[in-house]
Specification:
Shape: extended
Radius of gyration: 19 Å
Order of helices and strands: HHHHH
Low-confidence stretches: none
Number of strands: 0
Mean pLDDT: 81
């Protein structure tokens, strides 16, 4: 029972986080982030109801888009700056950030959320196969 609750909460939190990140790029969706999240979760529920194969295909499309977006960002960064300059930026990135108990808890919560989603779907997969 708890694994299903974990599965749904992981999807909801991840979807809301994604909408809040998108609201930085598109500020108009900021006030509507919660409603868009609810709509996306309903669409995901319908997609899962239609079939696991269709859900997997949509997930694959999202993963491919994310992969190529990451590659495009890396190519753009490393074609515009040199590798030594990149390494010289690392101390600047870490400056003014101290490791506090709150930042440790935030990091732990983020990593736990990622692994709980992965673990919950891996435990749910055998249940979803046709008997």
């Amino acid at each position: 029972m708890f694994i299903l609750v974990d599965y749904f909460l992981t999807a909801a939190i991840s979807c809301l986080s994604g909408m809040l990140y998108l609201s930085v790029v598109f500020p108009a969706i900021g006030p509507l982030a919660l409603w868009i999240t609810i709509g996306v979760l309903i669409l995901l529920g319908i997609l899962n109801w239609v079939g696991i194969s269709e859900s997997a295909k949509v997930s694959l499309v999202g993963a491919v888009i994310a992969f190529f977006s990451d590659i495009a960002i890396l190519v753009m960064v490393f074609t515009h700056i040199s590798l030594p300059y990149f390494f010289s930026l690392i101390p600047t990135m870490l400056a003014n950030h101290s490791l506090t108990p709150l930042s440790i808890l935030i990091g732990f919560a983020g990593s736990f959320l990622a692994f709980s989603g992965l673990e919950s779907i891996s435990q749910l997969s055998p249940v979803m196969k046709t008997p």
